[in-house]
Amino acid sequence: MFAPGRIWNDLNGQPIQAHGGGILYEQGKYYWFGENKNGPTLPQGGRVDVIGVSCYSSSDLLHWQDEGIVLPAVQDNPDHDLAPTKIVERPKVIYNRETQSYVMWMHIDTADYTYARAGVAVSATPTGPYRYVESVTPCNTDCRDLTVFQDDDGAAYLIFASEYNRNITIAQLSDDYLTIKDVFTKQFSYPRRHEGREAPAMFKHAGKYYLITSGCTGWAANAAECAVASSPFGPWQVVGNPCTGPQAEYTFNAQGTFVLPLPGQQNAFIFLADRWNPRDLSDSRYVWLPLQVKAGIPEIPWHETWDLTIFHDPDPHKE
Ligand code: DGJ
């Protein structure tokens, strides 16, 4: 059973370290990538020195094998993007069929969040090791929380909070997914710094694109918001908070990071979120909940525990 918010151990009995993560599905296996925060949180809170990006594998989404740190921190060069003193957040991996390589995008920053870049790494196998390529300021703008989305036709997009989170920028990746094409849009245009949106997660259902974001309140939870569009480039129309049930106004005391479509199923998704603990970030918990689109609007109901049979229940509203 999924038990949102409870400690989740891997097959070695260790708490899973894959925060701000995302999932890649490839040939019957799921690969969960995320921030390894298995170190001391600094006394002022809100920071663990960079350890690296973890990977876990599973065939049922419940039992996870630790595949190790597939992109480790770089210890011997304080200027490196992956130095322990930097920020490496929200890694996401997609597979490029043309180049047969796994491409990871992540938010790279300095500890004060002013460097604000997108980093990219590549590997021949899902479990790495990943070779760090570079970081960029995509579309000539700052880049903080990010995600990637791969469309059915192989086109892939980097979706990121830009201009101090005042906009969400959606940019198409190059055919090899390693660079960013000069094809992009800025959406939402919030009036003031930090009053915008972050933590983007995109998915597609019945020809429509959905983008779930959070507000900007640091590690504290706030309400999620969903927007819908007919193209990743918009225009995006806000349709409201997809969460229902206790603490729905606070995304169940968590912040979204990814939406996983269940392979081979219609209208069956898992919403992945992080319940951050800024005083002990290593003990931040995972909140995974079922997501279904009902009458064109995504719905994420709270469950203390649940499993994938939830998607088999007859539901007259199912699309
Ligand atoms: C919210 C972001 O979504 C997280 O990834 C992290 O950057 C925190 N802010 C830091 O306060």
Automatic annotation (TrEMBL):
Per the record, where is site Important for catalytic activity, responsible for pKa modulation of the active site Glu and correct orientation of both the proton donor and substrate? D145
Specify the domain of life of the species encoding this protein: Bacteria
Q: Which Pfam families match?
A: Glyco_hydro_43
- What biological-process GO terms show up in the record? carbohydrate metabolic process
Q: Which InterPro entries match?
A: Glyco_hydro_43, Glyco_hydro_beta-prop_sf
Q: Which UniProt keywords apply?
A: Glycosidase, Hydrolase
Name the Gene Ontology molecular function terms of this record.
hydrolase activity, hydrolyzing O-glycosyl compounds
For this chain, the family text in UniProt reads: Belongs to the glycosyl hydrolase 43 family.
Q: What name does UniProt use for this protein? A: Glycosyl hydrolase family 43
